[in-house]
Design brief:
mainly alpha; globular; Cytochrome p450-Terp, domain 2; two-stranded antiparallel sheet; 57% helix; mitochondrion; binds acetyl coenzyme *A; Citrate_synth-like_sm_a-sub; binds oxaloacetate ion; 23 helices
Amino acid sequence: MSHIKTILTRRLYSTAQSDLKTTLKAVIPERLQLYSHVKKDLSSHQIGTQTVGSVIGGMRGSRALLWESSSVDPNKGVTFHGLTIEECQAALPKSKHESTDPKSEMLPESMFWFLLTGKLPTQSQINTFSSELAHKGDLPEYVVKSLDNLPKTLHPMTQLSIGISMMNNESVFAKAYAKGIPKTDAWEYVLDDVINLIAKLPALVGKIYSNTYYSGKNLGTINMDKDWSYNMASSMGFTLDDSVNIKDLSKSQSNDFVNLVRLYCALHGDHEGGNVSAHATHLVGSSLSDPFLSYSAGVQGLAGPLHGLAAQEVVRFILEMKNAIGGDINHKVKIEEYLWSLLNSNRVIPGYGHGVLRKADPRFTAMIRFGDNRAEEFSKDDNLQLVKNLSAIAPSVLTEHGKTKNPYPNVDSSSGVLFYHYGLQETLFLTVIFGASRALGPLSQLVWDRVYGLPIERPTSVSLKKLAGL
Ligand SMILES: CC(=O)SCCNC(=O)CCNC(=O)[C@H](O)C(C)(C)COP(=O)(O)OP(=O)(O)OC[C@H]1O[C@@H](n2cnc3c(N)ncnc32)[C@H](O)[C@@H]1OP(=O)(O)O
Ligand SMILES: O=C([O-])CC(=O)C(=O)O
């Protein structure tokens, strides 16, 4: 016994009289050495059904999640129940007021219906559903008051996640669960919560925008006869008839903005289950946290710069680059030099690379198409032109740099500058629209998680020493 104690004491206790950080610093080099060995020499080794490389490499290549609504092919990108973006654009209902307008975009609520059911909704089903969302769109008073009391300097994504999380006070699922419900009924309560959550996003997004940038002024109202994206645009003050038109847009610019929200939100709604926001929502939901808590976790994941926050980072990067190259947006050499300066200072090029994709993201192309279809509006937009030039130049620079497995643009590359064009120039806000959009897919899957009665997610962890066979 005393022998064991001596060994443990020698192995486990710090010998020096040092503080916490110093003690940690001292043990890092040895552990890093072991980590490098495991990564370099043992990645292909099998541990259970996984490779060691997958365990320490962000679970790449591990098929570990059940997800119904979309899938991502490395070369072709996302499909929604097997339909490509263009097929969805052709098949999903638009606003009832613009159903024959070729420039009007599919509605995110049509996408949600499709993601959830796997069935294409009819125009009349969507008219009714848009109206249901509008009627459920009011924010509870305590949420408004709490948002009003947050510091204006709080990042809009943090405000979004707080707002969503607070509404768990409304959760019919949480209340029903507390009373006791059969497991087989859970999905119906979850569906009610999911619809309520999605319905409240336009007002929530508008409230955060107004509080952060316009001192809480009422910028617009929800119109019961309009769709979810139109109401989001109104809440932010970007429509002519239902808002203060805060950016003084023309009628056609305001229509474009609404359609940009529609396209952006429909496209960003789902990207299979492994991305951080979807996975976080699914993981938290697996403990039977209600949809508000679950999706607020998803939003917190989306707020990371390697994931959704890249939407804001790209716009900042494009503006900085334009400045640094003296506005010479067509100067290939200057652009290349700027990219190298970033890479050489160990920064990532935002909007490039992907965990799964190995070609340009078709969502990137769809957003660029949105601008190209409005040639007159965008003909003098240097930012969009720079984004396009960059997409022709950056892949060869990143390939020569030799690190990223995918040197092509991802979805975040193009979308921010489109919003910027129409006056949404508060860059820290851009990911909030992403946050509203991403509710569609992960929350539709959450309903199915409860239909199937999926268990709590609980993989097993393993230590580095064990991976190294020590
Ligand atoms: C909605 C979305 O989430 S889309 C993604 C949005 N994020 C961005 O645009 C941020 C920039 N891109 C990246 O950081 C990455 O490409 C990610 C996070 C998207 C994917 O990461 P991974 O799957 O690890 O990419 P990959 O396996 O190609 O990474 C290998 C190396 O290339 C580097 N790399 C990847 N992309 C880039 C990039 N755009 N610029 C510079 N280096 C890059 C990685 O940092 C990594 O370096 P390391 O070996 O020193 O750690
Ligand atoms: O799939 C991913 O990892 C990131 C992404 O593009 C998304 O979530 O839309």
